[in-house]
Write a structure and sequence with these properties.
heterodimer; A: 288 residues; mainly alpha; globular; B: 285 residues
Chain lengths: 288, 285
């Protein structure tokens, strides 16, 4: 017999079962919506072309093979797309980080007259639609002799990566105590020393999240890669994918294999740095 | 170096890059918008507002504008609803920590693929003999039917974009103090009332920021998805302001008209950006 005094309405596991079922149904429906297309891409990359459109469709393939991957990896002209994307994205990431760290330092540790207008300028750059600058930009890149070259793409991508990087980096540095780097300056050290010897080492989590995001933007860019390059040997992965689609429109297994290979760097970065990345992103993008 | 100049020295690489790569092109494109035969002709003619008038009265521009508005509004609302739903489900204490981590990884996935991959993946899924038609027992040309194409590309964009809302709202949900729900429960609030009177008001600021940001992004930056799925067709049914402008420039070599269109797109974005900046300022103070 239970004493009446404990009859306070508490949540017992048995009472919670309908709620639990409802939550799980919602969660599974959402997982199917998000995950099934990705699973289908993965499964198709291991199939033969005939099997991809076979009815009824099967998620697990009988003719499992790596042929599509070998076809991509064994073709130097397609590997070139990957080399280009890696070179461009890595250079963009390094250059963006160097430039953004200096800019963020200025915004975070100095008071100066142009501070607020400049901050506002950088925030509004994010809102300029790429198509707006594309037409004159094309002319500028040609005039600078950077059309169809790595530097052309690298400098262009910094236009998109810098504003985010500066905003995220500034908000990260603002969260670090000023005493850290001020001590160096009081002792007669230069601002450069304070920044690189003291502030940068403790900013690693922020730098990592900015770096990952920068790499993602550069790896994924499409419009400018399409317009500012022309030779097949300068094309990046997103454009390579489109070329593969146009030239071999029935080789779906190869298109999917290239999609997977083209997503691996971003997936890997995300998996390894998820913790840094999520917090960095939300603090930079939502709180400014 | 003088103390006053020091911050500007730290900012100089940024300022030089932005001046050459952003400010100069914007000034140029505004100039181009008022000229005829620009770029193709060494001696372009000043034509005043003629280009802007021609664009603003072009029926295809109207279609592109309407499509962009529909695509943007539906995408942004769906991003918010899906993002909030998934964030709340993932925040539920009814699910173990491990299951939540696994599910969150699955939910974030669409966001990790480049738009080019998303475009080819959905072209395969939506093919007439593809898996979606099989599952729905239909035989529809999702991307080639003018009545369906806009809806189809919008759904693809919804799939690709909700995780940003979800991740940000999840962070927001975790920041709501548990005592607020405790107090609401003591007052006898039902789960629906708790959602309406605790969750929503607490998330309001983040939601407004995200809606504005997503509007800016979606209205101006959807080029790759459209270009790789429908190319703006069939019969302009998925033409967006970006594809319309791109075609004027790089298919028709009408750089003056294309610049006029680009300037109109810029104006729309600046209006949205103005509201975003104003909202962020209000939040800070």
């Amino acid at each position: 017999m239970t004493p009446l005094t404990t009859a306070k309405p508490t949540r017992t596991p048995s009472r919670d079962i309908p709620g639990r079922i409802l939550v799980w149904l919602g969660l599974l429906a959402g997982a199917a919506f998000a995950g099934l297309p990705v699973l289908w891409m993965l499964s198709s990359s291991f199939k033969s072309n005939q099997e991809i459109f076979e009815l009824p469709p099967r998620l697990l393939t009988e003719s499992f093979s790596f042929d599509a991957y070998l076809a991509i990896l064994g073709d130097p002209s397609r590997l070139r797309f990957f080399t280009n994307s890696y070179v461009v994205a890595i250079c963009v990431t390094i250059l963006t980080l160097i430039v953004a760290i200096h800019a963020a330092y200025a915004f975070s540790r100095f008071a100066f007259r142009m501070k607020h207008p400049l901050k506002l300028l950088i925030i509004s750059v994010q809102a300029v639609p790429p198509i707006t600058v594309l037409i004159p930009y094309f002319g500028i890149i040609v005039a600078l002799k950077m059309y169809d070259t790595y530097p052309g793409l690298i400098f262009t991508y910094m236009l998109f990566t810098l504003p985010y990087a500066i905003i995220m980096m500034t908000s990260y540095m603002n969260s670090l105590p000023r005493e850290l780097d001020e001590a160096v300056r009081v002792d007669g050290g230069s601002s450069m020393t304070a920044l690189w010897r003291v502030l940068v080492p403790v900013s690693v989590p922020g730098i990592v999240s900015v770096g990952v995001y920068t790499f993602m933007i550069a790896w994924n860019e499409y419009l400018f890669a399409l317009t500012l390059t022309s030779s097949e040997s300068m094309r990046t992965v997103p454009i390579g994918l489109q070329l593969l689609m146009g030239q071999h429109s029935y080789e779906w297994n190869e298109i999917m294999a290239m999609s997977i290979l083209g997503s691996i760097p971003v997936l890997a970065l995300f998996l390894f740095f998820q913790r840094y990345f999520m917090s960095g992103l939300t603090s930079g993008a939502v709180k400014n | 170096m003088g103390r006053a100049l020091e911050p500007l020295a730290f900012l100089s690489p940024t300022l030089i890059l932005l001046a050459v790569l952003m400010v100069l092109p914007i000034v140029l494109v505004i100039g181009y918008a008022f000229m005829d035969n620009v770029v193709t002709n060494p001696d372009p003619e000043f034509v005043g507002a003629a280009n802007l008038i021609q664009i603003a009265t072009d029926p295809t521009f109207h279609i592109a504008l309407r499509n962009t508005v529909v695509f943007t509004v539906v995408s942004v609302l769906a991003h918010m609803i899906l993002g909030l739903t998934f964030a709340m489900l993932l925040n539920s204490k009814r699910v173990s920590v491990t299951s939540r981590a696994v599910l969150r990884a699955i939910y974030v996935m669409p966001w990790l693929f480049t738009v080019a991959v998303i475009a080819v993946l959905w072209r395969m899924l939506l093919a007439p003999s593809g898996v979606i038609n099989y599952l729905l027992s239909t035989n529809v040309e999702w991307l080639a039917d003018p009545r369906l194409a806009l809806g189809t590309v919008t759904v693809i964009n919804i799939w690709a974009g909700y995780p940003f809302f979800m991740v940000s709202l999840l962070a927001g949900l975790q920041g709501i103090p548990g005592e607020l729900y405790e107090a609401a429960r003591v007052d006898g609030a039902s789960p629906v009332q708790q959602f309406l009177h605790v969750t929503l008001p607490q998330l309001r600021q983040i939601i407004v920021s995200l809606l504005l940001l997503d509007m800016i992004w979606t209205s101006a930056q959807q080029f790759a998805l459209i270009w790789m799925t429908t190319g703006g067709g069939p019969l302009s049914s998925t033409e967006m302001l970006s594809t319309y402008t791109y075609k004027l420039a790089f298919d028709d070599y009408e750089f003056g008209l294309a610049s006029a269109s680009a300037v109109l797109v810029l104006l729309v974005s600046m209006v949205l950006a103005f509201f975003y900046v104003r909202h962020e300022k209000a939040r800070e103070s």
